[in-house]
Amino acid sequence: METTQHLGSLDALARAAASLKQGELDAKLFAQTVADSSELIAALPPAFERVMNDIVTRLEASALFGGESCSFSHADLYNALDHWLERARVRLEAN
Hints:
mainly alpha; globular
């Protein structure tokens, strides 16, 4: 049952990530969605939390720039987020 709940939370986080990429959700609201997913993140190995925190920090910082900059590539951040979501799903489904 717990895995099913975590997978539901992961699906919600993936929907939020899709909204972020489409410009329907800003970085601050996405960061709040991540914070609201603390039970999901706690169910994963500690490295997942560190990586997600890094992604969120960079997303929030990149929001200060209107477009791509030399320091922040939105495409790279979104790719990192997609990779995190994929790896989290694999880890949860393995349990």
